[in-house]
C-alpha cells in the first residue's frame, strides 16, 4: 500500500490545479460576457455610471486572469514534479490519486498547447 501522506499530497495538489484551471476558464468567460454587456449598454445609450461599472467589472476580471495563470503554473509545476518523482513507485503509480493527478497534468498541458502557450 502506498504511503497515505504521499497520496494525500497528490490529492491536494491535484485539487489545487483543477480548481485554478477552472477559475481561469471562468474568468475568461466572465471577460467575454462583461465586454458584451459593456457593448450592449453603450449601444442602448445607458447611463454613464452603468457603463463605467460594467467596464470596471470587465477590467477586474481581466486582471484576475494573469494572477490565476501564475498560480496555476506554479501549482502545475509542483504537481508535475510530484508525479514525476512518484512514477517509479509501483504502489503509488497504481493508485487512483496518481492516475487523477497524471490526467489533470495532461489535461492542462493539452489545453495550453491548444491556445498556443
CATH topology: Methane Monooxygenase Hydroxylase, Chain G, domain 1
How many DSSP H or I helices?
4
Low-pLDDT runs of 5+ residues are none
Strand content: under 5%
Give the structural class: mainly alpha
Rg calc: 20 Å
Question: How can the largest sheet be summarized?
Answer: none
Mean pLDDT score, rounded? 91
User: What is the chain-wise order of helices and strands?
Assistant: HHHH
- CATH top level assignment: Mainly Alpha
Q: What is the domain total for the residues?
A: 1
Structural overview:
The longest helix has 40 residues. Helix content is 87%, strand content 0%. It is elongated, with a radius of gyration of 20 Å. It is mostly helical. It contains four helices and no strands. The chain has a single domain, classed as Methane Monooxygenase Hydroxylase, Chain G, domain 1 (Up-down Bundle). The mean pLDDT is 91.
Outline the fold blueprint.
Layout: H1 4-43, H2 48-86, H3 90-93, H4 96-114
Short characterization:
By secondary structure, the chain is an all-alpha fold. It has helices spanning 4-43, 48-86, 90-93, 96-114. The relative contact order is 0.17.
Question: What key phrases describe this protein's structure?
Answer:
4 helices, mainly alpha, single chain, Methane Monooxygenase Hydroxylase, Chain G, domain 1, TBCA_sf, cytoplasm, microtubule, Tubulin-specific chaperone A, 117 residues
